[in-house]
Amino acid sequence: MSGQPFRPIRRASDVSEQRLVNRITSEERAWIDPRDYGLSREQVKEIAARYGKKIVWQCVDHTDQLLLIAEPGLLPLRARGPFAPRTVMAALPWVISGVAAAGIIVNGQLGNDVHATLAAIVGLLMTVIALILPRLLPRPVQIMLLAREFNGSISVRIKPAHYAVSPMLIGYLAATYGYYYTGYLPASLGYNHVIGLTPGSLTPSLLFARFSR
């Protein structure tokens, strides 16, 4: 036998539980979906209680449930930051496209046709990835980003295609942070007077406004 110490194999449920524990203990307020951890609502509630936390808020519809885990007495708090996720998501494809275009132009002027072609291909692939980036992120990260969209701005535009939750749950989450639904912006291939010409115009949006105090 080798001199390696015996390490018992952890069950899938143990791994899922540890992931949940890491999440709820690393954040003061953590939005979680039990199915992302393969756990039931009651199991989440029991695990949270061991660490002095509980379900303080919930958004539930017929498709899913989002639970806010925090210490008793804490309520949802709007995220504060210089940029909302939607701002970064809208700008990223343009930045990548601009860098790729610069690479094509520079290499073309230097006669590096192969490099120019590679820059075009890589730029196109990276732009496509940037357009669908939110969907490529782990679902817990998607939910965290969605909650951060409602950061106190007067109006918020959410693209359901970016998040793996139902439009109804998005509406419930918006109401949690003091926003109400104002309308639907369909996909557009042309210039839109509300949001301008952006790659994001290719997918529909839900519009929300903040309740005035």
Concise overview:
This protein has 7 helices and 6 strands, in the order αβαββααααβαββ.
Please name the defining characteristics of this protein:
globular; 213 residues; single chain; 3-stranded antiparallel β-sheet
Q: What layout of secondary structure does this protein have?
A:
Layout: H1 12-26, E1 30-32, H2 41-50, E2 54-60, E3 65-70, H3 85-109, H4 113-131, H5 133-136, H6 139-149, E4 155-158, H7 167-176, E5 179-185, E6 205-210
Antiparallel strand pairs: 1-3, 2-3, 4-6, 5-6
Task: Write structural notes for this entry.
By secondary structure, the protein is α+β, with helices and mostly antiparallel strands. It has seven helices and six strands; from the N terminus they run αβαββααααβαββ. It has helices spanning 12-26, 41-50, 85-109, 113-131, 133-136, 139-149, 167-176, and strands at 30-32, 54-60, 65-70, 155-158, 179-185, 205-210. The strands form two sheets. It has a three-stranded antiparallel β-sheet. Strand 2 and strand 3 (65-70) form a beta hairpin. Helix 3 runs antiparallel to helix 4 (113-131). It is globular and about 65 Å long.
Count every helix, treating DSSP H or I runs of 4 or more residues as helices.
Answer: 7
Question: What is the straight-line distance between the termini?
Answer: 71 Å
Radius of gyration computed on alpha carbons: 22 Å
**Oligomer, anyone?**
single chain
- Briefly note the structural class of the backbone: alpha+beta
- In helices, the fraction of residues equals 40-55%
